[in-house]
Each structure stands twice: as C-alpha cells, then as structure tokens.
Design a protein that fits this description.
The complex is a heterodimer of chains A (523) and B (315). With 523 residues, chain A is an alpha+beta fold. Chain A is 29% helix and 23% strand. Chain A has helices at 3-16, 50-59, 107-118, 155-158, 181-186, 231-240, 254-258, 288-296, 300-308, 338-347, 377-390, 402-410, 431-434, 438-441, 451-462, 466-483, 510-513, and strands at 30-35, 64-66, 72-74, 77-82, 88-93, 133-140, 143-148, 194-200, 204-209, 222-227, 245-247, 263-269, 272-278, 312-314, 351-352, 358-360, 363-364, 366-372, 394-400, 417-423, 487-499, 502-503, 521-522. In chain A, the strands form 6 sheets. In chain A, strands 11, 12, 13, 14, 18, 19, 20 and 21 form an 8-stranded mixed sheet that branches. In chain A, strands 1-10-9-8 form a 4-stranded mixed sheet, with helices on one face. In chain A, strand 18, helix 11 (377-390) and strand 19 (394-400) form a beta-alpha-beta unit. The longest helix of chain A has 18 residues, at 466-483. With 315 residues, chain B is an all-alpha fold. Chain B has helices at residues 2-29, 44-54, 60-72, 86-121, 126-140, 143-157, 175-209, 212-219, 224-252, 256-261, 267-276, 280-308. In chain B, helix 4 (86-121) crosses helix 7, helix 4 (86-121) runs antiparallel to helix 9 (224-252) and helix 8 packs antiparallel against helix 9. Chain B is globular. The chains are: A alpha+beta (523), B mainly alpha (315). Chains A and B meet through helix 1, helix 5, strand 10, helix 6 and helix 12 of A and helix 2, helix 4, helix 6, helix 7 and helix 11 of B.
Chain lengths: 523, 315
C-alpha cells in the first residue's frame, strides 16, 4: 500500500489522542475513592442511585446528620424543637453558612428543597420518608417550620440521610429542576466541606476543599471519586495505592488486602438486615408457628461462614445493634434446631407423608422462593431449599434478573416467599416496612397486617420523648421476634480497607463517615 | 459512481428504520422497566409520576411515532436513567471507544498483516508454526481473565502501567500519558482481532501465491520480493479488507468487558448499562449510531473493493 495511506492512518491515530482531560496538577493530601458509575449531583433527583450517595454526602449538608453514635446531630440546623402535639418541628438554622458560589444559606433554601420533596409530581428520591410533612414555612431568615399531619419522631433522622439542602438561587426560573443538567450533571453548588472542581464523565469527579466551610477549613486538599465499575479493578487499585479507601463488597477479597501492611481492614455494623419475607396473604404462612419453624430450620451460622466469611451477625430482629439506644437483645431467639422446626410444623397441622414431605388436608407444603440474581442470593436460595427439604418443605427456586425481580415480583408482591435486604436510615422507625397501611403503598414486603404491631409502630413513630420511643420499640422488637413477619437472617458488617496514611475517619458506616471529611487527615 | 452511492444511502435509510422498529419492539417486550422506576424503595405514587414524566403512559405506537418524528428533527430524546440528551451521552462515550478501537485495529493491522504475509511466504517453517500457535492462543484466551492478569502483572506487581482510566487524574494533558493508559486495554482487544487478521492474510496470500500469474512472474525471472510486493500482494487484499470491515463495527460497538475492567468510559459499558437499566431512548440511540457505523463501514469496504480491483466497477 502506498506510504501516503499509512501516513494518513498514522495521522488519524495521533489526532485521536488529542482529546484533553485534566487541568491542574495534584499535590499531596488527596483522597481517592471508587464509585461504580457516573453520579448525579442532586440527592433528591430520581436518577441519583447508589453511586451518587458518596459525592452528595460531601458536597451537600442536610438539616441534621448521623452522629458518631448514629443519633441525629446538628448539621445545617443548630438545634430543633418539636411542638407539644408533635405536629410542628422548628429548625433553627446556622448563620454565616455560605454556598460554594458565595451566596448566603437561608431558610428559603430549606423551603425550596422540601417543597420539591413533598410534591408528588416530582417523584423525588426518598420522598416516602417525608409523607407526613404537610407544609414548610419560613419563619425568618434562619428559622423554618415543618408542619406534619401526624407526629413523626423519625423526621430528625430522615432529614440527615441523603437529604442535602439545595440552593434556591441555582434553580431560579427553572421549570423542571430535574432537567437542570448544569447543576445535576456538571457543576453542583452545595454547602459542604468540599466543592466540585472537575468532573469528567466516565472517569472521575474531583472535589477540592471549601475554605469557607462552616465547621472549619478541611485539612485534606482534595477528594477524588474515580469511576471504577469493576470490583477487581478496585481491589487492584487498593493494592497499588491509587485508592485511599474503599468498602470491600466481597468478603472473599479480604485476604489479599489483609496481607498488605499499608492497609487497615476494619468492620463496622450496618443498619441493614437480610431477610426472607413470606407473603402474609398466602394461607401457608398465616400461622406464626410456620414462620417460626422457617427460622429454626436454617443454620444461619453456617450460611454466614459460607457466603460471608463470617462477616455478619445472626439477626435477632429488624433493628440493628448499631442503633445502640433502641436495640434490645432480650427477645425470643432462634438457634438452629431442626427438631423444633418439625415439632412446630406438626403443631400447625403439617404431617409428613410417605415421601417425608409435609402435607395437610391433602395439600403439600410447597412454595416458590423468589430472589434476585445479585450478590450471593443464588447460593443463599439453594441452601435454604436444602434446609427446608430436610424438614419436609418443598421449595422451588424462582431467580430473576434484578430489574425484572423488582418490577414483576417485589413491587407487585407477586411471590410466595421473597429474599431481600433493607438498608434504612439510622432510626428504628419501621412504619413504612411493616404497618398494615404500607402493604401496597409502602415497603411492607410481606404484606403483614397485625393491629398490635400497627399500634407499636404508630406510638414509636409519634413519641418525641426518647424514653417513650424506646419503650414502644422494645415492645415492637419483642413482637417481631415472636411473630416473625420478616424471617430475618443476619446483619452484614461493612468491611472497609483504609490506607493507614488516612486518619480521622469515624467508626461508622462509610456513607455516614463521608459527612465528617473536614476531620480527616492524611499523612 | 455517485448514483451508486446515492442508492446505498437510500438503502441505509431503510435499514436504519427497520433496525429501529425491531429494537423498539424488543426493548419494550423485555420484562421490567426503566431502572429509575424499579428500585426497591419507590412508592406507587413515585412510579406513576415517573411514568408520566417519561411518557411511558402512552401506547407503544404513539411512543414510537413520537420518537421517529423527533429523530427526523435530530432530537434523540433524553436518557431515562441519566437525564441528559441521548446524543450528548453518546457523544461523550464514542470518542474513547473509537480511540481504543482505532488503536487496537491499528495494532492488529500493523502487526497482523505483515505477520500473515511472512507466515504465508515461509509456510511450514518454525516461524509459521509459532505464528499459528500464538494466534490460536489469542483466540482462546478469555478477555476478562487476560485483562485481570495484565493488571495484576503490570500494575500491581511491576507498577509499570496504570490499571484504569484514560489519563492520570489531575495531571495536565499529555499524549504520552494517554498512550500509556491505552497500552493494556489495547493489548487485550488486539489479542482478539489480531489472530483473525493473521490467519485471513495468511490464507489469502497462500491462495494468491498458488495462482498462475505468480508462476508466470517467477518464470519471467523476477526476483522474489518483486513477485510478492508488486504482483501477488495486491490481489490478496480483498479478503483482508473484508475482515477489517467486519472488525470495525465490532470494535466500535465497544468491548464491554475490557472497558468495564479498565474503567474505560466507552460505548460498550454504556450499551450494556442502558439495556440492563431498560433505558429505552438511550438503547435506541446507541442502536442507530452503531447501525450507522456498520452501514458506513460496509460502504467503505465496498468502495475499497472498487479501488483495489480495477475489474470491479460501480455505476
């Protein structure tokens, strides 16, 4: 071929390299963290998925934030008061807080944000947590009142989790805030310890420190969120030092990281429980002895050892021990006991047939276990099938791709028993997850309906006195352990690998720890 | 010639339309819905509000007609799961994929064709066996395993090469930096396309070397290099050009695995993520773009035939 053709090809190749990327050089004091996809810089945007959580927790502040003991602690609100009837919450806001573009933060920003949240047409993220908020009123420049239609003690905690306040002035005159790409997808404006300096889609977001941060200038110079979809690459980069810290999703990856002297592997409890949820509307599962037998029949310790390398704790309820003030361990527990399971099933009228499988009134005890094909649910379901066969229950496996699982089974409640997990804010309020009114309109996956349970959930949510709340939730935990509406399995630990050069990261989940980046230090 | 090209463009339009219809039908048949509506913590009111926002409450034919009408005006709509205009997203992801695909293709051509030619002219020698064996290895190695092995060796162990990304974050732009980041992903991609090019070139050249006119050239007393370069090779290009034409769209469609493992922000990742997330406008946009590239590549290959072989004539 003629040399001119080769030259042309070469020239094309070289010119393709001319796609500019970065800007200023990085100096020391840079923290690098992986995220799995391009973020949306707006915690309320319906498209803000799990990858957006980390950057948004740094860029924005909420009214409150999870304290180091996970109790709601002040963030943009210095303090708050609840009226006697529990229907009025007054937040007294910090003064002298500036947005990243220099404007002053005021109560108007809070009203603007929460007006979006309670507007059903906006379909804001986590709007379900604020359904009791009827109206938001600006009292003065630094005071704002939330009016509720029923008392909701959990408001303080919900207002601190992925609930950043948005600047009203950045959205002035916009018909649809969710279409404001300049803010949501390029250059957001928050009040947080770090602000966005550079965003290259598909590659990284670089935040630099906000010298005017209201809790003091951060020591660290920059935080970079690198887009790394593959977990193997994340591990490799922890090993090379390109990543400063990361959550280790797969417990099997911990070993090679532990061998490295420069990495510190730690675990913290999560506010997260894994469960099997039997459909309460299915007559098979109406009898609580059956549900209790379903938990007795599972060797959870062996399963934790098998899939999770021991990085989880057998659950004794829905409220995680991480919520130290509310968690109660003195409830009915379910050690692995096959004989007890069989005895309970027999009491409920299920007798083994000639093939060893249970039957009652000519009907076999048979159901389908629905699960999403993610994480370790395949192994989990296969094992559950084995454990249940050993006590005479026949299980068929119904595994689906995640999107299909959610839309065709989970949300429509078209299942016999479903396997899943719930991650919740640091609050014991499980109203949306178990109240009879939340069967189809909320997250009450088992479609459970029990008037007594409803009563505890209502009083727990309404009580503003912490001691009264704790008492209500103690009764709640005792009833949950007795009734087992969710056949809870375990509370997984969050495993993190943190480079030893980094200190000051609080011992709470990393998502919450990212709200303390002004305290982090790099050697 | 211009009449030929005009006819081809006409065909292209029809093909693109048919492809759009098929894609639209298939993607809407898939169970599930857009990822923003299928998260665990949405309420029925949220989902309904989103359905209305995304225009999914209208019948399928209406949605499709609206889409076609908008596309005629150059508007491919907004992604459901990202929110930005589809062409903006594709515009961000296409150049990195073209860069990677271009580099892999260039490598394959620059190494593969000479290797194939050499292999053919030194058939059954030790060299030929080595080339054939290495090609066989290249075709057999799974890309994801090879990619991770390369990262473990060159990044983690030797610290010679970066394990992800297109460029060093925060560093000023430099072509050398870009080339260093290109090295590993290109090696992985080229491992797949190189062997095919080598084998095709080899067999094509062997074919031509057996022809009568080559015997004639040798009989005339020409030296071997002249026989090869001036007489034989020209006739061997057509199958090779065909294979390159097939490789181009495959590479542009993006290699999901390579891009995911190396954090390379390209089309492959985008295509899979949009399919999994049932992001209808984005899936349609990607399909149209890739179909256009395939059609364009085919046209270029056909025109190249005309240029390479004077016997082929279009009017």
């Amino acid at each position: 071929m003629k040399w001119s053709v080769w030259a042309m090809i070469l020239a094309l190749g070289i010119s393709a390299l001319a796609i500019p990327v970065g800007a200023a050089p990085a100096t020391g004091g840079a923290v690098v963290y992986p995220i799995v996809a391009d973020p949306t810089f707006n915690p309320w945007h319906p498209r803000a998925f799990v990858e957006s959580v980390f950057p948004n927790r740094v860029i924005f502040n909420g009214l409150t934030k999870p304290g180091k003991d996970l109790e709601p602690s002040p963030d943009l609100a210095e303090r708050w008061e609840v009226s006697k009837d529990g229907l009025g919450w007054t937040f007294f806001l910090r003064k002298n807080v500036k947005w990243h573009d220099g404007f002053d933060f005021t109560a108007d920003d809070v009203k603007f944000t929460y007006d979006l949240v309670i507007d059903p047409k906006m379909a804001a993220n986590a709007a379900a947590n604020f359904r009791q908020v009827k109206a938001i009123t600006v009292i003065d420049k630094f005071t704002v009142r939330f009016t509720l239609n029923t008392p909701t003690a959990s408001l303080a905690a919900f207002a601190g989790t992925n609930a950043g306040i948005l600047p009203k002035h950045a959205f002035e005159g916009q018909a649809d805030p969710w279409a404001n790409d300049a803010f949501n997808k390029r250059a957001p404006i928050g009040t947080g310890a770090f602000r966005v300096e550079e965003y290259v889609p598909g590659s990284h977001v670089r935040l630099v420190r906000n010298d005017n941060y209201f809790l003091g200038r951060p020591t660290i110079e920059s935080i970079t969120f690198k887009v790394l979809p593959d977990p193997n690459t994340q591990i490799a980069q922890l090993l090379t030092g390109e990543l400063t810290l990361s959550i280790v999703e797969n417990p099997a990856s911990v070993k090679p990281l532990q061998a490295r002297p420069e990495l510190e592997i730690s675990t913290v409890p999560q506010v997260n429980f894994y469960y099997l949820a039997p459909n309460y509307t299915n007559p098979l599962f109406k009898d609580k002895r059956v549900r209790q037998a379903m938990l007795y029949a599972l060797d959870r310790r062996a399963m934790i050892k098998g899939f999770l390398q021991g990085y989880a704790r057998e659950a004794t309820g829905m409220i995680s021990p991480a919520l130290a003030y509310y968690y109660r361990s003195e409830v009915k527990t379910y050690e692995y006991d096959r004989a007890k399971a069989r005895a309970l099933l027999a009491e409920a009228g299920w007798k083994p047939g000639p093939d060893g499988m249970l039957a009652k009134d000519g009907q076999r005890f048979k159901f389908a276990l629905t699960f999403p094909r993610v994480q370790y649910f395949e192994q989990l379901s296969a094992l559950v099938q084995q454990y249940y066969r050993a006590v005479g229950i026949e299980v068929t496996l119904d595994g689906l791709e995640f999107n299909q699982f959610i839309s065709q089974r989970f949300l429509t409640r078209k299942f016999d028993v479903v396997a899943g997990w719930w991650v919740t804010p640091a609050d014991p309020d499980f109203f949306n997850y178990l109240h009879s009114s939340a069967g189809t309109s909320g997250f009450n996956v088992p479609v459970y309906a029990n008037a007594q349970m409803d009563g505890f959930l209502e009083s727990g949510r309404a009580a503003s006195d912490p001691a009264v709340r704790a008492a209500a939730y103690q009764k709640f935990q005792e009833l949950v352990a007795e009734e087992l509406p969710y056949v809870y399995l375990w509370w997984p630990f969050e495993i993190r690998a943190i480079n030893k050069r980094l200190s000051g990261v609080p011992d709470i989940g990393l998502r919450d720890a990212f709200q303390y980046t002004h305290e982090w230090r790099l050697k | 010639m211009s009449g030929y090209i005009a006819r081809r463009v006409g065909h292209a339009g029809v093909v693109l339309f048919v492809v759009s219809v098929l894609t639209f039908v298939i993607v809407n048949l898939a169970p599930g819905g857009p990822a923003i509506m299928t998260t665990m913590q949405t309420t029925p009111e949220q989902r309904e509000a989103l359905r209305v926002r995304l225009g999914l409450d209208q019948p399928l034919t209406v949605q499709f007609v609206k889409w076609v009408w908008a596309v005629m005006r150059g508007d491919f709509g907004r992604s459901f799961n990202d929110g930005r205009p589809v062409m903006v997203i594709i515009g961000e992801r296409l150049p990195p994929t073209m860069l990677l695909a271009g580099a892999a293709l260039l490598c394959s051509i620059l190494i593969g064709i000479p290797a194939g030619v050499f292999s053919a002219t030194h058939r059954y020698t030790g060299y030929d066996h080595v080339v054939t064996f290495v090609s066989f290895l290249g075709v057999s190695i799974p890309a994801f395993w090879f990619a991770i092995m390369l990262i473990l060796f060159f990044s983690v162990r030797l610290h010679w090469l970066p394990s992800s990304g297109m460029a060093t974050i925060g560093a000023p732009y430099s072509p050398l930096d870009r080339a260093i980041h290109l090295l590993l992903p290109t090696m992985v991609l080229a491992t797949v396309s190189l062997p095919q090019l080598v084998r095709f070139t080899r067999s094509s050249v062997l074919d031509v070397l057996a022809k009568d006119f080559v015997r004639t050239a040798r009989a005339k007393g020409l030296r071997e290099p002249r026989v090869l370069y001036r007489h034989a090779l020209r006739n061997a290009w057509i199958p090779v050009v065909t294979i390159v034409g097939i490789l181009v769209p495959r590479l542009v469609g993006g290699s999901v695995i390579t891009e995911t493992i190396f954090g390379w922000p390209g089309m492959g990742q985008l295509a899979v993520a949009s399919a999994v997330g049932r992001d209808y406008p984005l899936v349609m946009g990607i399909t149209v773009v890739v179909a256009a590239v395939v059609i364009g590549a085919n046209l270029a290959v056909d025109l190249a035939y005309g240029w390479l072989d004077p016997r082929i004539h279009y009017e």
